[in-house]
Amino acid sequence: MQQVRKVVANEFEAVNQLIIDQLQSNVPLVENIGHYIVDAGGKRMRPMLALISGGACGNLNKDHLTLAAVIEFIHTATLLHDDVVDISTLRRGRPTANAEWGNAPSVLVGDFLYTRAFQLLVSIGNMEVMTLMAEVTNTIAEGEVLQLTKAGDPNTTEQDYFQVIKNKTAVLFAAATACGAILAGSEQEEIDRFYQYGLDLGLAFQLIDDVLDYEGNAGEMGKNVGDDLAEGKPTLPLIYTMKQGSKADAALIHSAISNKSLAQLEEVVAAVQRCDALTYTKQLAMAKSKAAAAVIDNCPESPYKESLVRLAELAVARNA
User: Fold this and answer.
1) pTM for the predicted model, two decimal places
2) Secondary structure (3-state) at 94
3) CATH of region 2-316
4) C-alpha to C-alpha distance for 168 and 146, rounded to whole angstroms
5) Torsions phi, psi for 242 (to 5 deg)
6) Domain coordinates in residue numbering, the chain
7) Transmembrane stretches, by residue range (predicted)?
8) In angstroms, rounded to a whole number, what is the distance separating the alpha carbons of residues 51 and 220?
9) CA 133 to CA 114: how far, in whole Å?
10) pLDDT at 217
């Protein structure tokens, strides 16, 4: 990841400074919570994608810096809201904002970040970008609600699962890359290619996230193993195990999801592994990673394109 970031090192540093500047508020609690979650770091893949996509399309400019900050603010707002909804206590190895300050401040600061993101969008002044970002933000909200309705529902299908992760996760990746292309002055065909690249990359990324919930290391991931099960989320490894496993395995998973319980976490992990559900999920993630790389194959060769291909590989070859 560090090698990929080097391609846009100067721009990435400028984006980080812009994020810090835009966290300024007359209300100290807004700045405190905003800095707390932003300073926690993370991969910053989404804002980096906005920058690298602009470079890959041949025109990385100052508007891409603002776009990258917008993407990060929207993502951070979703994290604040997610942690409240999921009653999470740990993110990126630290207590969540809601664990430190409470639910109400976390939700309201998330709202602040959303509105600040759209203030920045207005400053870019590109209606095509504003339209896409408005649509994507609405889709993310729908994805959050859809995921909430599926929590504790063991009858969730694989199709349902993919609709959730597309809406909740992948579309923001797609917005970052497509808007990067738009601001570079690309033609619609290229914008569409970059949107599809981001969508496939986001799906691959989330699939691996769901694998790591059953075989990851809490210290490396910065969150608790089994969190998804505790929230009753029917992720693909569980859906596959119920479909392909024995009646006993299916009943075990069914009960764990319905009760949103970690009481039998070890047995659930054993069942998921016994049914090769993690292997199946990884294979789908790899297919999406390869599809992402393939869709930009015709783009001119450049360090930016190489970085996009490398990011697709890194999305699946990670342990956190």
Assistant:
1) 0.93
2) strand
3) 1.10.600.10
4) 9
5) -65, -30
6) 2-316
7) none
8) 27
9) 11
10) 62
